[in-house]
Amino acid sequence: MSADTHLTGGKNYFEDFEIGAVIRHARGKTVSNLENVLITNLVMNSADAHFNEDKMSRTPFGQVVSYGGVNFSIVLGLAAQDCCENAIAELGLDNIRLTRSVFHGDTLYAYTEVLEKSDSDRPDAGIILYRHYGVNQKQEIVAQVDRKVLLKRRP
To answer: How many domains does the chain have?
Structure first.
């Protein structure tokens, strides 16, 4: 993906985003076992795929798989720094896709495509529909989500 690189700054108001633009977010995050254990326990997901190293070593995966909720959350967080610093409200998360397994030690990066922009009923804000992509260190897409945000207009 060819894209501009952002890292939180003055270019994250409604007017600054153009339909069709693609942003490569500057930061990455290496997935650790700590996140997997913490989040899966918080949401009561006790599947062997996320906790049983011995059992998973005998599957085609060969190891424990990171819980999709962890991966999805990391991608949203990486994208938020550039796209949602001036958000007033999250309006929706749709079309969530977890397209490839993620393992401990994989590093995730995020890209964002601006799909739509529209006025809102608030004069100080507009609505943007983003598509966030999460990729691993091999640039393979591992997650995708459409995110609709009510975003401040430039003061």
So the answer is: 1
CB 86 within 8 A of CB 152: yes
How far, in Å, CA of 79 to CA of 86, rounded? 13
Strand ranges, E, within 7-135? 22-30, 87-98, 107-119, 125-135
Residues 145, 137: Cα–Cα separation, whole Å: 19
Crossing angle of the two packed helices 68-83 and 33-42, in degrees rounded to 10 = 100
* β-sheet bridge partners, residue 118: 127
Q: What is the CATH number of the domain that holds 104?
A: 3.10.129.10
Instruction: Convert the pLDDT of each residue in 80-116 to its tens digit.
Output: 989 999 999 999 999 999 999 999 999 999 999 999 9
What are the tokens at 123? 């004069």
Phi, psi of 42 (to 5 degrees): -60, -35
Distance between CA atoms of residues 101 and 127, nearest Å: 32
Nearest in space to 68 (alpha carbons), one of 87, 95, 49: 49
Q: For residue 70, give the nearest of 112, 94, 101, 91 by alpha carbon.
A: 101
Residue-range definition of the domain harbouring residue 109: 4-152
**pLDDT-derived band of residue 24, with 50, 70 and 90 as boundaries?**
very high
